[in-house]
Write a structure and sequence with these properties.
two-stranded antiparallel sheet, globular, Cytochrome C Oxidase, Chain A, single chain, mainly alpha
């Protein structure tokens, strides 16, 4: 963190660790999200390696059945809620205000609050390793596996941790919706917004509508576990399928919450490195909107084998086939953007191309599963695991790495080494396909998912060994990336303001950006405003300082009011964490102790909210 501080200096306010704790600067909060999410990425990766070691050969003894279930549950939960979502949030924080020509997000303290609540929920979830053991019912938490007779206290940590994480996601989503709708630079109409901004807005709409569904489902589960209700328990008149309806009604919009940001990143990287505007901009925008809408109409394709009936299955098969259309439209537009372009084969483009190729494979297997007979055959086999990872690793993770290589120089002022980045790409691509490609073969051969061992006579050993080798190759690629990251922070090539000759407004200001982003708010006249500005300069040179591109002199920024640092967001987040801890005490100790802890946490949260509301929005001009 000290090295990151060196390249992201705040000119005023608190310094050192306290400066990071109290920061409300969207760029610093983005760094906090990114570093935290990557740490959990390493944790989730270690969990995945343990799973693969257990399955590398028949009759494995690396993990017990109980430990396998726990590690599998934590791996899935970590990768979805603590890695892909917060990595996307890191890009939202760092990039969105810069792309729309704003000095900050709409609610800077709410932004800080969303990060600290995210960290609180993540730590609460992982505290289960220290108290009673982690959850063991799978990242999907199917009833009745989550009911009291079948699971220990780890499920309570899982439920409450995800509830806290939901508060973080909702706060961030509302913040970015208001920021994008209200704070765009003059002239930046909706149809002039960068594609990444569009995908962020659609993702935020999905977040604020999907997470309440999961919240309701988990509240009912919490009542079952803490107060003896029977919403999901058949013995008391409940219905386990009700949980599946809640979970997948959230879960399929969640798939697009995970993939749309990566689609937005790729839509920014491809035009820059093909030296062409994005082909079919409006069509790509509309296809993103259609994906967001249809994402609500496909959830029951996860339930074709539950027994909902032929009519319901037919309806959801049709909508699942239909949602492939806007996704395919995006792929054709990306390929058309590359066609005939002056391609520059830099590391960000490698990862963007990897995203397209792997996502096509995942999409094709997804279309296969829209067919009820095919899905019935593949259900609960490793074929589904392969599809899932080709979409969310081959898609989301490759796309997010494209964004890391693309915007790293904007955040730090230094370039990641391109040659090492390409080595990272090829190792990750080869390792990924060795890990998840053979799962298609094993799934067709009948290997069930969620099993912790298998007998030798099943004939699955060879491909499982190949998958384990591929998983360690992915791990090696992450070590290469970490070496590149820390090397570049210390001695990477200085990037300048615009190392890629890019299109959008964030490249018109210094790298790293000043605290106030733009000394003069730019005026936008096209979809590619920075390309347009540079073209004007080539024809008729214009002054740099305070020009329409918003690039400031070194001594500009006088009198700009920016939000002052605040510790109240972390106080409120701490109070919420203690309240959730009180419910855990109630579940495992007794009512009185739990009530005392919950009320104590509520009091801390109320004090934090009160102090937050009385704190001045700004301490005055910070740059005069």
């Amino acid at each position: 963190m000290a090295m990151i501080t060196d390249v992201l200096r705040r000119p005023t306010g608190y310094s050192g660790v306290w400066g990071w704790v109290t920061t409300v600067d969207h760029k610093r909060i983005g760094v906090l999200y990114g570093v935290t999410a990557f740490i959990f990425f390493l944790v989730g990766g270690i969990e995945a390696l343990l799973l693969r070691l257990q399955l590398a050969g028949p009759d494995g003894t690396v993990l017990t059945a109980a430990a396998y279930n726990q590690i599998m549950t934590m791996h899935g939960t970590t990768m979805i809620f603590l890695v892909v979502m917060p990595l996307s949030a890191a890009f939202f924080n760092v990039v969105i205000p810069l792309m729309i020509g704003a000095r900050d997000v709409a609610f800077p303290r709410l932004n800080a609050f969303s990060y600290w609540v995210f960290l609180t929920g993540a730590l609460l979830l992982h505290m289960s390793f220290l108290v009673g053991g982690p959850p063991d019912a799978g990242w999907f938490g199917y009833a009745n596996l989550t009911e009291k007779p079948f699971s220990e206290s780890g499920i309570d940590f899982w439920v409450l941790g995800l509830q806290v994480l939901g508060i973080s996601s909702m706060a961030a989503a509302f913040n970015f919706l208001v920021t994008i709708i209200n704070m765009r630079a003059p002239g930046m109409s909706l149809m002039r917004m960068p594609l990444f901004v569009w995908m962020t807005m659609i993702t935020s709409f999905l977040l604020v509508t999907a997470f309440p569904v999961l919240t309701v489902g988990m509240m009912l589960l919490l009542f079952d576990r803490l107060f003896g209700t029977h919403f999901y328990a058949p013995a008391g008149g409940g219905d386990p399928v009700l949980w599946q309806q809640y979970f997948w009604l959230f879960g399929h919009p969640e798939v697009y919450i995970l993939i749309l940001p990566a689609m937005g990143i790729v839509s920014e990287v491809l035009p820059t490195f093909s030296r062409k505007p994005l082909f079919g901009y409006r069509v790509v925008v509309y296809s993103g909107i259609v994906i967001g809408f249809l994402g609500w109409m496909v959830w029951s394709h996860h339930m074709f084998t539950v027994g909902l009936g032929a009519v319901v299955n037919a309806v959801f098969a049709s909508t699942t086939f239909l949602i492939a259309v806007p996704t395919g439209v995006k792929i054709f537009n990306w390929i058309a953007t590359l066609w005939g372009g002056a391609i520059q084969l830099k590391a960000p483009l490698y990862f963007a191309l990897g995203f397209i190729a792997m996502f096509i494979i995942g999409g094709l297997s997804g279309v296969m599963h829209a067919s009820v007979p095919v899905d019935t055959q593949h259900q609960d086999t490793y074929f589904v695991v392969a599809h899932f990872h080709y979409v969310l690793f081959g898609g989301s993770i490759f796309g997010l790495f494209a964004g890391i290589y693309y915007w790293f120089p904007k955040v730090t002022g230094r370039l990641l080494h391109d040659g090492i980045g390409k080595l990272h790409f090829w190792l990750m691509l080869l390792g990924f396909n060795l890990t998840f490609g053979p799962m298609h073969f094993l799934g067709v051969a009948g290997m069930p998912r969620r099993i912790y061992t298998y007998p030798e006579e099943m004939g699955w050993a060879f491909w499982n060994l190949v998958e384990t080798f591929g998983a360690f190759m992915i791990a090696a690629s992450m070590l290469v990336f970490l070496f590149n990251f820390f090397r570049s922070l210390r001695q990477g090539e200085e990037a300048g303001n615009d190392p890629w000759d890019a299109r959008t407004l964030e490249w018109s200001i210094p790298s790293p950006p000043p605290i106030y982003n733009f000394a003069t708010i730019p005026t936008v006249h096209s979809r590619d405003p920075w390309w347009e500005e540079k073209e004007k300069r080539r024809g008729a040179p214009v002054p740099v300082a305070g020009g329409s591109n918003g690039e400031p002199h070194q001594d500009e920024g006088h009198g700009i009011h920016m939000p002052s640092p605040s510790y109240w967001p972390i106080v409120v987040a701490l109070g919420l964490g203690v309240m959730a801890g009180g419910l855990l005490v109630f579940a495992s100790v007794n009512l009185i102790s739990g009530l005392i802890v919950t009320l104590g946490g509520g009091l801390v949260a109320i004090i934090g909210i009160f102090g937050w509301s009385l704190e001045p929005a700004s301490a005055g001009p910070e740059h005069g």
